[in-house]
Amino acid sequence: MSHLFEHHGAIGAGYRQPEPVIPKETVIIPPALARQKAPRWPRISEPEMVRHYTWLSRRNFGIDTGFYPLGSCTMKHNPRVNEVIAQMPGIAEMHPLQPEHHLQGLMAIFHEMQDMLAICAGMDTVTLQPVAGAQGEFTALRCIQEYFRSIGQTDRNKVIVPDSAHGTNPASAALAGYEIIEIPSNSDGRINLDVLRAVVGDDTAAMMITNPNTLGIFEEDICEATKIVHDAGGQMYYDGANFNAILGRTNPGLMGFDAVHYNLHKTFSQPHGGGGPGCGPIGVKSHLAPFLPGPLVRKRPILATDPLTLVNDEVWYHWYHPEKSIGKVQQWHGNAGAVVRCWAYYRRYGYELKTMSDHAVLNANYLRRRIMDEAQDKGLAHTFTDGVPSKLVKHEFTLSLAAMKGQNGIGAMDIAKGLLDKGYMAPTIYFPLVVDECMMIEPTETESKEVLDEFAIRFVEVLGEDADVLHAAPQTTDVRRVDEVYAARNLCLSYPFDEEQ
Length: 501
Description:
The chain is α/β, with parallel strands linked by helices and 501 residues long. The protein has 3 domains: 56 residues, no CATH class; 272 residues, Type I PLP-dependent aspartate aminotransferase-like (Major domain) (Aspartate Aminotransferase, domain 2); 135 residues, Aspartate Aminotransferase, domain 1, CATH 3.90.1150. The protein contains 16 helices and 13 strands. A hairpin with an 8-residue loop joins strand 12 and strand 13. The chain is globular and about 75 Å long. The mean pLDDT is 90.
């Protein structure tokens, strides 16, 4: 246990802030804003600080320490060369307020990423502004909203989502002021076209859908669904969370989508934010492009009046804002570090990115089959079923623990906790809601056959544990089973200082 904040050392020990540039006596701080006593920062030595953060790092589970079969937005290996490139001084030390002629290299990367993302998704224009997938959803919906206003169709106030949709889809639509229409899936997990036909109309603004969907099933009737929505005058929005399953094989543009967001933290290897900014660019067809948030990057010929006119390049990169832009959705130009990392990944693999999606699909189907075979061999095949009937899945798959829950009271939560004792971060549970006692597993393309085999063995071992053991799991972790409902409703957001200190 680290006791960082209990270290108070000698006065003046530890790190000290530099003296202020402006003399203290010239700064007038209103009494209401002034501290009444010194801040409770720890006064510790460098080795004590290093030990504290090393202790913290060992309490975390991440992709660098083990297999992470989370499901739907799984972490995968982030090539370290991307970090090296993103931290080069000519990139990492740039400031967004520097003039354009200082930023030409970085802007060239932005421009290339805009084009690459547009091409791979079948879109016409891309903005790198949003700093999260959910923010990308909201941004695209706002562009759709302004598009309808521009053509006088302000009565379109409904957004359709399947019942298997990611929770951010209805949340983003509601934040944009839309009414949500949820439609049920068929027994095979795919969209119900008859219900879709029944709910579309003159008030339909858009349909939001993921393909493959959250069950890992490809929506084979997606082009028909697109036609239904378009015939009613609505727009189609592609949730790009599962784009890594189809990259290089097909794209949202071919399916008829009008807008898409990209999750650069999974598809293109940008590390998950860890609470910090991510990167969720959006791509749109040409009719929505005038409404995109800026700035975007474009080329134009170098003019005689430009600075540094001796440069031999034929073009100059510069920022611009689309003519009917909804405005900025983020203070600067998107998460530049994330863009650079993903650019490095794209530059390294290029057309080989198709292999990424091939391996993602291969790994998911192999692990699914491997778990079933292992359970059959151990006499535990009766404990779970497929989430939906399907011969093949794409990048992820679902299992239902409803049978086990009915037999001995062991549910998906208990299996997830048992996996923690085996050294694994558990898969997503209880989502999508259309699968009872659901576990959603996504191995990604970066895991080896040996890792998947070992996970399948340990997973089935957990299925065979006694109910008492699993109800008490996890027993080997620093933090045992917690009351998650209480924790969610009663967040502790500050260190519990002893007020007498």
